[in-house]
Amino acid sequence: DAGVIQSPRHEVTEMGQEVTLRCKPISGHNSLFWYRQTMMRGLELLIYFNNNVPIDDSGMPEDRFSAKMPNASFSTLKIQPSEPRDSAVYFCASSLSTREKLFFGSGTQLSVL
Amino acid sequence: SQQGEEDPQALSIQEGENATMNCSYKTSINNLQWYRQNSGRGLVHLILIRSNEREKHSGRLRVTLDTSKKSSSLLITASRAADTASYFCGENSGGSNYKLTFGKGTLLTVNP
Known about the structure:
The structure holds two protein chains of two kinds. Chain A contains no helices and eleven strands. Chain A is mainly beta. In chain A, a hairpin with a 3-residue loop joins strand 4 and strand 5 (about 40-50).
């Protein structure tokens, strides 16, 4: 298995633009997590899904952020409109269940100018 | 807010020495997990210890869990320069819907 695949690897955009981050979890995994990592705030859990259903989105910072999981093999995290303070590394992770170990993707480095 | 705090925030040792990192958490956990992150990469799982376990080993890694103190420690024995990385503990908790939340990590530097 190729592991968790995230795209793009790097994204540079201007303030106000829409940004879409993509994630393909490991086949057979039922849980998917989106995290954001910054020096100031560390690793923050944004939202997680179980069997494609959003379970907890309390970590999503604002209404500008939205996430979807239309099927078991694909998820997106969208920021619209983007702001400079959204600059961070965004990680997607998947697991067999919400009680098991996570497998992380390589992350998307987002820079909003 | 995120749960769990690692201590120390940074640790610098010589190759061959042992490294101990501590983690404190706040809730009732299902399990506690330790991860490693090399610069610019995603986190890699090291060890998962369940709430009814007290100690677990994997190669040069030893993890202990004290649920009465809500704390865990990660010991890396005979450290190598390649162990240089950030180490995070994640607490798996949440009642009916479990989730994994992390502290800010310990940056370990192993000098050759």
